[in-house]
Design brief:
This protein is an alpha/beta fold. The protein is built from 36 helices and 22 strands.
């Protein structure tokens, strides 16, 4: 029977643009295939050919329910009906099709192979059902739902026109199998339908089910969204590793630095590249986890980029594809410091920067349609090079949220650089190491883990891995110990016998600082940093008003943080004596070079990171000091997840930089002796192994209590006022729009919000109760997503030097 009526997947009434449903289904199926690097996927539960077929069928059937008259009348004529929904009915039709397409006798055997096939079909049903929502908890399904009026009516409508539908999709599936898919009576008789969840959680419990479903689901939802917007997956660009060498030569000409360090940087880079070039074919194919362990200031960022490009070159030569490069960094402020290198190497238009304050890659497009496309590509990581944060990266793996899972497919066959891997909280080291190992195995992803303080993530991962799957890695800088041992830039001087109060800290400053040098003081809380800033300011005013004092923390708006760092760098280059008070914000990625420092007690790796901000270029005298103290009541509260006991134990005497690695070895071994953390074990066993996405969501948090954070907009200057006015105007206009214009205005609003974020700080709710900023709606009656500090009330809520003022004069934020 030939179809006369046209069926549509999407219709924009304003532009009269329509997308035929059969085109959407076929193109989404093809896009599902192209979105994943199939040749690198390797599961035991499904062959590559079966995997290709499975995700193709997901794309082909995900919207099959849109053929109903209820949906078509709603789409084309705005006829609202309770029967217009399509995800659930589509999932039933897909399941029916898959069950009949495969050999039914296999199911009847009841062996593991049959049960795995049965589970895979059920997961396809589950993903189709959820493709407009989130994955939650895989539980037994009630087949009696087929008897509800909605499903019966939808099925009856589709069954009536099944020949018409099959005539459209017959080039993709056989007519006979397609017709059976629309037979609800066959599905009702299926007694096996609700069994897979129990099988997964018991006899066939495997971690593969989790990594399979998030990959396949990501492919489906990303392809669906992009195709609906008329977009295709971007072709990944091919870059020569030489572009990094060329950039380094330009940098050297423009900016002089330590000859000694330049020589070492060059040696490190060449040694790493040679290691990759010399890997034999079998090792290169099978071993996908690399470490780049090297001291701070030795050029790891550029070396890692060139290492990734060289690995990419070998992949293209051997496996004939270009891999995507994804760099994940602990903190947003490090991205701001790092992105200039990436932009100069890859060009701005080829980079996608994704973090909580980003909307799109920083290109200069003025076309709103391009911005719409950028917005869609952002969530799906459609770019050759991506820079993101640990929060974005790991929370996109340990989640069931649709929006976050859209990017998982990009990991297949890609290269992931995890910078400052020691920043992962101790309780998650096993979970993260275990997951890296699984993803490298199942997706063919290669990882470069970068650190100056190798945190034994391999050993932590192996606490949860079987003997035949133990995690292993290749160290790219094999002789890294010689670089650590010959460094003599700093030394750590512990004074930890007793806790130190602020008066005693002032006495320490007087005894070690001669007022001609730069001094960095890093403490653990914002409240402490503000109190200390005020205390030291009084001290400086009493001894020498010419000495400057700087303050840096996330308590000041991002725009001011950039300004503080820029001014500090200028002072350091001019050898101007000054003191900077900071929180952990300064520890990684901030390229400042102080003469000496004081650090409140923290985990050893954090202390060594602070030392990396002292004599960074090695131009000063040998062994510039970092004094470690324990301020009253701070460390144990902030670092409850880390073992400060062992830090104090190994820091029993002065340690020079040459011995830092030996010290870290002892420290991590002691922590490793504590064994597998409950947090990692529970997420693996109760979440991943049982496909309980809600449990994972509830228990994985890289930033503790992030739900208790309030964003506060500080209207500090004319630019902030202008942005706030534009923000209000877009919200006001948005309420009156529909269709394409509403969507475009939403994109414009996102752009404004991104710029507005430079004036936004994040404050814990318990710190604003007694000095609560205004609600944004009090500005002009427009609801906003943050609180508001008016310009005329700045002094009440915001200090120009130290930022937000809570009821105690300070605030603790992440």
């Amino acid at each position: 029977m030939t179809s006369i009526r046209k069926y549509y997947a999407h219709y924009d009434k304003e532009t009269d643009e329509k997308q035929l449903l059969i085109e959407h289904l076929g193109e989404t199926a093809e896009q599902c295939l192209s979105s994943i690097n199939i040749q690198t996927v390797d599961f035991s539960i499904i062959s590559r050919d079966e995997f290709k077929d499975c995700i193709y069928k997901l794309g082909l059937f995900h919207d099959i329910g849109k053929y109903s008259d209820f949906f078509q009348d709603y789409l084309m004529y705005d006829k609202t009906s309770n029967y217009k929904s399509h995800s659930l009915i589509s999932s039933y039709i897909l399941y029916n099709f898959l069950f009949n397409e495969t050999h039914i006798e296999k199911y009847q055997k009841g062996d593991d192979e049959a049960n795995e096939l049965f589970i895979l079909n059920h997961l396809s049903y589950y993903m189709t059902k959820k493709h407009h929502g989130n994955l939650d908890t895989l539980n037994c399904e009630d087949i009696s739902y087929l008897e509800t009026p909605m499903i019966k009516k939808q099925y009856a409508n589709l069954f009536k026109k099944k020949e018409e539908i099959i005539s459209e999709i017959k080039k993709y599936v056989s007519e006979k199998k397609g017709l059976i898919a629309f037979d609800i009576t066959f599905l009702k008789k299926n007694k096996l339908f609700n069994q897979p969840p129990n099988i997964i959680k018991n006899r066939l419990k495997k971690d593969e089910w989790y990594f399979y479903i998030i990959l396949a689901f990501s492919s489906l939802i990303s392809s669906d969204k992009l195709n609906s917007a008329g977009l295709k997956s971007e072709k990944i660009k091919d870059y020569s590793p030489d572009v990094v060498s060329e950039y380094i030569n330009i940098k050297k000409r423009l900016k002089g630095s330590s000859i000694k360090l330049d020589d070492d940087r060059e040696k490190v880079r060449k040694s790493v590249l040679k290691k990759i070039e010399d890997l034999d074919l079998e090792v290169f194919r099978n071993d996908k986890i690399f470490f780049l362990t090297a001291p701070t200031g030795i050029g790891k960022t550029l070396t890692s980029i060139q290492a990734a490009l060289l690995i990419a070159k070998r992949i293209k030569e051997i496996d004939k594809y270009n891999p995507r490069i994804i760099t994940s960094i602990p903190f947003i402020n490090i991205i701001e410091q790092t992105k200039s290198d990436y932009i100069n190497i890859f060009e701005e238009k080829n980079i996608l920067i994704h973090h909580s304050m980003s909307f799109k890659s920083d290109n200069n497009s003025e076309e709103i349609d391009d911005k719409s496309k950028d917005y869609l590509k952002l969530d799906s990581w459609e770019s050759s090079v991506i820079i993101t944060t640990f929060v974005q990266f790991f929370h996109s793996i340990f989640t069931g949220k649709n929006k976050l899972l859209k990017k998982i497919h990009t990991l297949s066959g890609g290269i992931v650089i995890l910078d400052e891997i020691q920043s992962i909280p101790e309780k998650y080291l096993t979970l993260v190491g275990w997951t890296i190992n699984k993803i490298s195995k199942y997706y063919g992803t290669r990882f470069i883990l970068m650190t100056a303080t190798k945190p034994k993530i391999i050993e932590f991962a192996n606490l949860k891995l079987n003997e035949n799957e133990k995690m292993k890695s290749i160290e790219l800088l094999e002789n890294n110990s010689e670089y650590f041992q010959k460094l003599n830039r700093t030394k750590i001087i512990p004074t930890l016998d007793n806790e130190t109060n602020e008066d005693e800290l002032i006495n320490l400053i007087e005894s070690i600082w001669d007022k001609t040098k730069s001094l960095l003081i890093v403490v653990n809380t914002i409240g402490r940093s503000i109190a200390l800033y005020k205390r030291i300011k009084k001290y400086i005013d009493s001894v020498d008003e010419e000495i400057e004092l700087s303050y840096l923390s996330t308590n000041i708006i991002p725009l001011e943080r950039k300004k503080v760092i820029k001014e500090a760098k200028e002072k350091l280059e001019q050898d101007v004596p000054f003191i900077m008070i900071s929180t952990q914000t300064i520890e990684a990625g901030v390229d400042l070079d102080f003469d000496m420092g004081i650090r409140d007690l923290s985990p050893l790796e954090s202390i060594i990171q602070t030392a990396g901000r002292i004599n960074r270029e090695g131009k000063k005298e040998k062994h510039c000091p970092l004094y470690v103290i324990q301020l009253e009541n701070d460390s144990n509260r902030v670092y409850k997840l880390h073992n400060l006991f062992y830090t104090k134990k190994v820091l029993s005497e002065t340690v020079e930089e040459e011995k830092y690695q030996e010290l870290l070895e002892v420290y991590y071994n002691k922590i490793l002796e504590q064994g597998l953390s409950d947090e990692s074990n529970n997420i693996i066993e109760n979440g991943i192994m049982k496909l309980d996405f809600e449990y994972i969501e509830e228990n994985f948090h890289l930033i503790d209590n992030i739900q208790n954070i309030q964003d506060v907009f500080v209207e500090i200057n004319d630019d902030a006022t202008e942005l706030a006015n534009k923000y209000e105007e877009k919200i006001r206009v948005l309420a009156k729009l529909e269709g394409t214009e509403k969507y475009k205005t939403k994109i414009e609003l996102k752009e404004i919000t991104k710029k507005l974020s430079q004036y936004v700080i994040s404050v814990r709710e318990n710190k604003i109760n007694k000095n609560h900023p205004l609600y944004f709606s009090q500005r002009n009656g427009i609801e906003g997503q943050f609180l508001w500090i008016p310009r005329e009330q700045l002094e009440e809520y915001y200090d120009e030097k130290t930022g937000f003022i809570d009821e105690t004069g300070g605030s603790f934020v992440f």
